[in-house]
UniProtKB/TrEMBL annotation:
PANTHER family: GNT FAMILY GLUCONATE TRANSPORTER, HIGH-AFFINITY GLUCONATE TRANSPORTER. Its main location: membrane. One of its GO terms (cellular component) is plasma membrane. It is found in: Cell membrane. Keywords: Cell membrane, Membrane, Transmembrane, Transmembrane helix, Transport. The lineage of its organism: Bacteria, Bacillati, Actinomycetota, Actinomycetes, Kitasatosporales. It comes from the Bacteria. The chain crosses the membrane at residues 34-67, 79-105, 125-153, 165-183, 203-227, 261-279, 299-323, 335-352, 372-405, 417-442, 462-479. Pfam families: GntP_permease. This is GntP family gluconate:H+ symporter.
Length: 480
């Protein structure tokens, strides 16, 4: 497999083009140093100064532009141009995904999925069931939102069944993290797709192929090994808080019945199905040139697919369960506040990436990679992994790395472009540690020590990154 990569005319030629006919200069070395300086600055501002990631990335963007020699007039322009470009392409999908996720949560759809699968598999199969639930829930909502919504259910399952909390907690995290890193319409993957000019439908298909074995390895299999070795207890304060939250949400829901399992599953998977049909049309040319083809292409566009799913969810998760217009309106209003932070960080990451591109850092990294003969797919994973290690955010890491790798991704086949986007998402899952806000959420919710969180959260994310890279490389070998 590695030999095939090394000899690939598609994925290696991109770095060769970047360096062809251009000698390495001292300015190139300085530009690479600028990347390191700006990353260190962002890390210090976030972790030590406790500055919000948006402001830290904005300062980091300005630092890149100034240190690389850009004119003062262009410093702000680079950031705002990148911010506008990213939020324009990805922002609408973030918003629609949040609305669909909130409709499912407030209707009790998540509870229905958990209850049905728990009855079906019994106590021994709970880690597998929770992994599947987390993957399904994660398809339509962001990691942080899905994590907070799943934690009460996970803690209640562990408490009521007298079950070790990590045996259900780690699979829940693994399922969410896997689809967040590899499956559109999550924002990081979408940014990577846009940056390398990949087809979203084909990336979705490949992402699911890679994500399924990864979720199994990082979820039930890793959990079976690690949970007896790490002590964990359910914090009573967290359990009490989540019980109160559940009661409040139940009172909001009123006397409505829960949606059926089959209806919940069909609604959640509807946008994925529409996008996969579009991928089939693009890849195999089904009904090309006909009106049906145009309709399927339209419905499979991510924004349209999510909108269609929301319109269906208004019935299946709302009016069809007896909800009033006021209750549905309240749910819709509750969709937006949780994603404000995601939107601004993604936008700031786009501004930071644009500053890197405008400064010439991308070309310098391309020349460096060309001299080192690093295949582009591995370079993408490595850059994203370094960004994740430095910044702590998978989304920020994907966005920043996509800004560096994107200009090199020209002339790739559809399949190789899709795999390159997945390599960026895979690298951005690497080594979540103490500069990752979710690291501390996991620690507090499951009553872990810092060492225990490193052995569970950090190791599982590293395992996810490495196994998903192996999956991407395996697909590359098959499609080459």
């Amino acid at each position: 497999m590695m030999a095939a990569l090394a000899s690939s005319p598609a994925l290696l030629a991109q770095t060769a083009k970047a360096s062809a006919g251009t000698a390495w200069t001292g300015h190139d070395s300085w530009l690479l140093a600028v990347v390191g300086i700006s990353i260190a600055l962002v890390v210090v501002l976030i972790s030590w100064v406790r500055l919000h990631a948006f402001l830290a990335l904005m300062v980091g963007s300005f630092a890149v532009s100034l240190l690389s020699g850009e004119s003062l007039g262009k410093v702000a322009d680079s950031f705002t141009t990148g911010l506008g470009g990213i939020t324009g392409k990805v922002g609408i999908l973030i918003i629609l995904g949040a609305v669909l996720g909130r409709l499912m949560a407030d209707s009790g759809g998540i509870e229905q999925i958990v209850a049905t699968l728990t009855r079906a598999v019994g106590p021994r199969g709970l880690p597998w069931a929770v992994t599947l639930v987390a993957c399904l829930v994660g398809l339509s909502m962001f990691f942080e939102v899905g994590f907070v919504l799943l934690v009460p259910l996970v803690l209640q399952i562990a408490k009521r069944a007298d079950y070790p909390v990590l045996r259900v907690g780690i699979p829940a995290m693994a399922g969410l993290a896997t689809v967040h890193a590899l499956v559109p319409p999550h924002p990081g993957v979408l940014v990577a797709i846009a940056a390398v000019h990949a087809q979203i439908g084909l990336t979705l298909v490949y992402g699911l192929i890679v994500a399924i074995p990864c979720a199994v390895v990082v979820g039930p299999l890793f959990t079976a090994y690690i949970w007896p070795k790490v002590p964990a207890t359910i914090p009573e304060t967290a359990l009490a808080a989540f019980t109160t939250l559940a009661d409040e949400e139940l009172s909001d829901r009123g006397p409505r019945k829960l949606p059926r399992f089959s209806v919940t599953l069909a609604t959640v998977l509807l946008p994925i199905a529409l996008m996969m049909v579009k991928a089939g049309c693009d890849t195999f040319g089904w009904a090309r040139g006909t009106t049906a083809y145009q309709v399927l292409e339209f419905l499979g566009t991510p924004a349209v697919a999510l909108l269609v799913a929301i319109l269906v969810a208004l019935v299946t998760f709302g009016y069809g369960l007896g909800a009033t217009r006021e209750q549905v309106q309240r749910t819709l209003h509750r969709s937006f506040p949780p994603i404000a932070g995601v939107l601004v960080i993604v936008g700031a990451g786009g501004g930071y990436s644009q500053a890197l591109a405008d400064s010439g850092v991308n070309a310098a990294i391309g020349r460096a990679a060309g001299h080192l003969h690093i295949p582009l797919i591995l370079l993408a994973w490595l850059v994203a992994a370094l960004m994740r290690t430095a910044t702590g955010s998978g989304t920020v890491a994907t966005v920043a790395a996509a800004g560096i790798i994107g200009p090199m991704a020209h002339g790739l086949s559809d399949s190789h472009a899709a795999l390159l986007a997945l390599a960026l998402g895979s690298g951005a899952a690497f080594l979540g540690h103490v500069n990752d806000a979710a690291f501390w959420l996991f620690k507090e919710y499951f009553g872990l020590s810092v060492g225990g969180t490193l052995r569970t959260w950090t190791v599982s994310h590293t395992l996810l990154s490495v196994t998903s890279l192996a999956g991407v490389l395996a697909l590359y070998a098959v499609t080459s």
